[in-house]
Amino acid sequence: MTYLPLPPLEQTLARYQEIVAPLLSEEEAARTTEVVAEFAAHDGPRAQEDLARRAEKADGDGASWLTDLWYASYLTTRTPLPLTSNVGFGLTWPTDDHGLDRAARLAHRFARVHLHHVRGEIDPQTSPRGAALCMQQWRYLAGGMRRPRPECDELLRGCEDAASREIVVLHRGRGYAVQVSDDAGRVVPLDMLREALRSVLDATGADDAPTTGWGPGEETPFPAWSYLGSDTAAHYEDEVLADADNAAVHARLTDALFVLSLLDDEADEDTHLRETGFRYGVAWPFKPVTYVVGLADPYTGMHVEHTVADGGTVQAVVGLAQDLPDDPDVPDEEEEIDESSTASGDDGTPAGTGVGRVEPLRWRLSDDVRARLAADVAAYAEDEARLRVRVLRTPIVETGGRRMSADALQQFAILHAQLRTYGRVRSTYESVDMREYQAGRTEAMRPVSPEAVALARALVDGDATAELLDAALAEHKRRIVECKKGEAVDRHLLGLRVSAAELGLSTAVFDDVAYARLTTDFLSTTSLGTDERIPRYVFAPTSEGGLGIEYGRRSTGEYEFLVIHGPERDADVEEFVDALRDGVARLADLVAYTD
What we know:
The two termini are about 40 Å apart. This protein is about 45% helix and about 15% strand.
């Protein structure tokens, strides 16, 4: 596997000034030139040498110079994960069944993929060009959990044994442990899993089943503190897990392969997707993944914690599950499961002929803890309710057979919308997959180039030309290629900033307004391309007052843009969306004219 390159210092500093230039005034650019030159001549080389030493050690350890920086940036997040870095995905699901059957089939297929990983049976992955992809992110399939701790969270690794593995099922606020493999690590039969889920629904729907909530006589919702910021959640865990029974429940949750969340309410896809990403109680956000199934409609989705896995890996895992046949696909799965070894006992837990082991999971909390937790959850719900998701669908830009990047065209439309709505441009982030390198994650591509800005201004003014379009397309391609070659600037600058600070060197170049402008993403954008596996997803904006934008080309022959925003953008988001729609139309006219 190729090591992640560490770019030359001089190259990164020169490219940094080029990339940040559209975001600065002339006076600001002149100041940036001065501090960059000072850093290059004095403290920069020492910071680069420190990074190079880290890179050599990390490469030998199977990591990269970015690995520790990446984990630190995620694990020190103190705000609630669903409102910061977690992602809610909608899934394209290939089966036509609904309700319980759909939930069982989805859980069974994903259980098989997770168990295949634990047993070491997943083939190495390659890119569309045939390059080997790093498989380290796939470790999230073994379960485990991000555990909130004061100041910096920790990652609890999943068990590497496939035997007697469980999943946790959420329904109506209650949690259940459901066994999905036998003592030989073989997945339970689909019918057995279906009956196990049926027993969960029967238990939560029983006349004498306690409701979940925060009032007297109600059962504590199983998601409990999991939607709170890490410092707050860590305090609750220290209190609650001092009880041995609670600690045992938490251990089972940690070891679970995944969480399966079953939704009762029928809703449109947009509503379900938003709730998958942000609504309290749908997931356990510190777990790597929660799969979500609507019982009253065809919705399927997933809630993903982003520290370990990126979108490209998640998309590949979903593809494996989608493509599995319903019949067992490996010999050991075809062998008969000894139901006596997985049946429930006589302790009042749901049980029955052909049902795998199902056990309720409950937290034992004092009235004081429940009261405080109720107030904190209510505060989270108020914050979450302020997030809005605006969906825009437009005809695609027909290129008439010309080779034009659909990604670039959509980014130009987004830039046009920013410029027309706000009269200026601010930093835009676009994620680029870097799994072709050992421990590769993503790189930040900055699509706001001088060429793209010139095109966007001309689109606003109505005088765009083929030459402006070609120049913007060429620069967009060049920046993507730079990222794929490990020559982009954002991650390298992060490493230099951390090294300079730890060595006690000057950080003037990072205290400069230019660095803040570049790394404060007014628009955080990302795309997985097509909707074959994952049609759409939502995530919170990464800066206060900013916008999160998911975009892509759909099989319906449309572009789709999901614009996620907080209350700061309520007054102008419709103008932005209208400008985005108009930008696509103007690009279509330009391409048709130049054709």
